[in-house]
Amino acid sequence: MEVVDFTRLLSIGSNQVHPVILSGGAGATLWPLSRSTFPKQLLALASEQTLLQEAIARTSSDTMFTGPIVVCNEDHRFLVDEQMRQVGIAPLCVLVEPVARNTAPAVAVAALWLMERDPEALMFVQPSDNVIAATDEFYRAIASGIGAARQGNIVTLGIKPTRAEPHCGYIQIGDRLPHHPGIFTFEQFIEKPGREKAKSLVNNGAFYWNSGIILAEARVIVNELRHLYPKMLDSCAKALREGKEEGGFVRLDRQAFGESPFLSIDRALLEHTENIVILTTDLSWTDIGSWSSVRDVSVQDESGNVVRGDVLLDHVNNSYIHTDGRLVAAMGLDDIVVVATDDAVLVARNDATGDVPKIVEQLSRRNRPEPKEHITVYRPWGHYRRVDMGERFQVKRITVKPGAKLSLQKHFHRAEHWTIVQGTARVQRGLDSMILSENESVYIPIGVEHQLENPGKVLLHLIEVQSGSYLGEDDIVRISDDYGRA
Fold first, then answer.
1. Which tens digits make up the pLDDT trace of 269-297?
2. CA distance 60 to 62
3. Minimum mean pLDDT range among 76-90, 106-120, 126-140, 458-472
4. Fewest 10 Å CB contacts: which of 53, 140, 418, 460?
């Protein structure tokens, strides 16, 4: 991964803003398209770019910003790297969380990392699952908040509500801040008020949507957390200090970071600090927290429908229909969401989609695979797709990128048969090394160390047949690995 030289940026100016993009969520709200190993921020939902790519792009087209600092889950780090590469944006740093601890520890480690390099760093923290119009108003709003942030305030963006949204958080403004147009003191938070309460808040005029976006000096964030949650800050500092930098990633120490409490930045800091102020704006902003919100930000046809994939409609209105492959035919529906993937179908009323995480929780309690992985699973070396599965066997289609190789590994409970469909494979099996071409195959016995590599310049495609008493992905003992997973 290419990483920007931070020291070069210190001469740019004291008001240079460092974007911090939070990309650690599991994305259960948009199941079944979003899974824990491929969450919603990595999906293209509102445009041709993914939500993460949009968040990165918003702060890359203006000289006010440096390159981004991204905080992501360990399972997503290579996907994040690939998506940044696709849009041609080099990060200052990718901080890798070994375990999920919500947004407060994520903001803390980013602030600590920045302070080590620039004691006066301004950080602009934004979630990766917002849709925001990157207009002149967006940049003006951020620029207008810099002065207040430099005075030691934690500036949070309040978005003027356009409707009564029951699943959003709200913040109430107080008095106008002297010498800072559009910035007000803070009165209170109200979290997900319900539809009737949301109507009264919108009609009040003093309540704004809580965007979850903050602008502040890194040292202010650190000092506030040191006062409010000193043990959490100590855990984050230790996780950063004892972490490892590998291939452009800063991998936080697992044990130290795991000692941090599971806390949002709102609960840990914004609800308790006396230094919060609200920068009000009427930006076009949507928190992608449900399928109904995806429909709201998408282009609708004359009947109010949004269609993705192979879909036929007859007398359908105000609905969102998405399919990843199979044909979906819908008739006589109004205000409905249908999302079909290879292994699951969601059907719900628009106003019920905020409760999708309850379905995900039920599936997780039953130890089902659907909340975690798709039929197609992406890895840093390529991807695999489950083709068939039964008692004591599983069939996968594996694709390996040119020049990439899987880890040197072995299995205690399964044997594997590989048949090359396209390309060339270099296979290590025990002490033997061999080159296989199309229509050739190899058998990997239980317990034998083996490795698969694509030495060619085209994609390698093969069929893998697994057989044995246990076929789970956790039956992999990695001896060595190019991607730091051993």
1. 988 999 999 999 988 898 898 999 999 99
2. 6
3. 126-140
4. 140
> Which strands sit side by side in the sheet containing 345-349, from one edge to the other?
306-308, 320-323, 336-340, 345-349
pLDDT over 60 (residue 6):
no
125 beta partners: 20, 214
* 14 has a pLDDT exceeding 70: no
* 365 inside domain: no
CATH classification at residue 252: 3.90.550.10
- SS3 category, 439: coil
Helices marked H in 159-271 — which ranges? Answer: 195-204, 218-228, 230-241, 254-258, 265
129, part of any domain: yes
Q: Would 293 be classed as within a structural domain?
A: no
The CATH number of whichever domain residue 419 belongs to comes to: 2.60.120.10
**How far apart are alpha carbons 248 and 359 in whole angstroms?**
37
Q: Which helix (H) or strand (E) holds 475?
A: none
pLDDT, one tens digit per residue, over 171-195 is 999 999 988 989 999 999 988 888 8
Exposed/middle/buried for 299, CB within 10 Å: 0-12, 13-18, 19+? exposed
- Report how far apart, in Å, the C-alpha atoms of 72 and of each of 26, 41, 78, 106, 110 are: 10, 11, 10, 9, 11
- The tally of domains found in the chain comes to 3
Same structural domain for residues 216 and 100? yes
The verdict on 265 and 313 lying in the same domain is no
CA–CA dist 397, 387 (Å, integer): 7
Task: Identify the residue whose tokens are 């628009």.
Answer: 350
Strand boundaries in 58-206, DSSP class E: 69-73, 93-97, 122-127, 130-132, 154-159, 169-176, 183-191
What domain range includes position 208?
Answer: 6-287
User: Which of 331, 359, 387 corresponds to the end of one domain?
Assistant: 359
Alpha-carbon gap, residue 190 to 169, rounded angstroms: 6
Which one has a higher pLDDT value, 435 or 4?
435
User: What's the mean pLDDT in 141-146?
Assistant: 92
